[in-house]
Amino acid sequence: MKPKRALPGALAKVPFPVIAAPLFIISNPELLIAQCISGVVGSMPALNARPSAQLSDWLAQITETLDAYNKAHPDRPAAPFAVNQIVHKSNDRLDSDMQECVRFKVPIIITSLGARPEINEAAHSYGGVVMHDVINNTFARKAIEKGADGLIAVAAGAGGHAGVKSPFAFTQEIREWFEGPLALSGAIANGGAVLAAQAMGADFAYMGSAFIATHEARASQAYKECVVNSSSDDIVYTNAFTGVNGNYLAPSIRSAGLDPEHLPVKDKSEMDFGSTSVKAWRDIWGSGQGIGAVKEIVSASALIARIKQEYGEAKKALTTQ
Are the C-beta atoms of residues 88 and 271 closer than 8 Å to each other? Predict the structure, then answer.
């Protein structure tokens, strides 16, 4: 394995090796700010701002709040934040949303479902860093060829639009040719898993589903309780709702009047992330397999404190063996 280079731009300023995944509908400025102040990269999808004009207000709120926090706490500044852009042809807001990201100099751009050189160039124009999420090694190579700075390996068990690769195999294959920034996603919900991601060669753990069950998350109380009360046995992998394979909570599928074991298979040509997908993610809830570690609804800061404590304990246990 090639030695890893120094992390570029804002990624070098992350206090704790976790990037909070952008959760469609659920992530909002309140959650993102709490994540950053607690020392992990906070994120949100640009599409969560509805109408699109709201994105400017949200970015102003985030940058002003974090700037004020950093001035008041120079000894422990907040982690940088990220905005997720869906680079799929169905996203007719991409160009205008990216213009707002450039205007506010968003430190990290997370791109999904497609790679466009001009999006990477726009981020680079002000010193931003682009992390592109991928589900296989072929897509990973294409993303780097098109100018992404780093990769998010979305392995089996991840929430939302997940892949099927083992995190061991996937990380190994990427590290055979890529020495840049790498985050690993897939059922990461405790501190030991964060350490394991690093041990496999990732720079960051990419963690999403556990944040659904936080006070700040813009999810319904029923959704949060379902995450707390479910385990990996309750996760269904299907493309029935958006045309792209993803992991969903079986109880929410049943509540929608569908049988989780007999869902239709969509053709890729039916892929959609517009108004239809809003209903899918609102009523049929996405989640990763790691939710067995989520036992209660807590604040984002309390969740991150637990992760940090578990991470320290796991590290200590390894050094004392």
Answer: yes
Q: Structure tokens of 10?
A: 């804002």
Dist. CA 283–CA 258, nearest whole Å:
12
pLDDT tens readout for residues 132-183: 999 999 999 999 999 999 999 999 999 988 889 999 999 999 999 999 999 9
Could you tell me if 109 and 130 are in contact, meaning their C-beta atoms sit under 8 angstroms apart? Answer: yes
How sure is the predictor about 56, in pLDDT bands with cuts at 50, 70 and 90? very high
Cα three-residue angle 81-149-177, rounded to 5 degrees: 135
The helix or strand, by DSSP H or E, that contains position 115, with its residue range, turns out to be none
Cα torsion at 293, 298, 301, 307 (round to 10°)?
-10
Instruction: Provide the greatest CA pair distance for the chain.
Output: 55
Degrees to nearest 5, angle at CA 183 with 179 and 206? 175
Residue that the structure tokens 């304990």 belong to: 313
CB 216 within 8 A of CB 41: no
Q: What is the CA radius of gyration of the chain?
A: 18
DSSP 3-state assignment of 302? helix
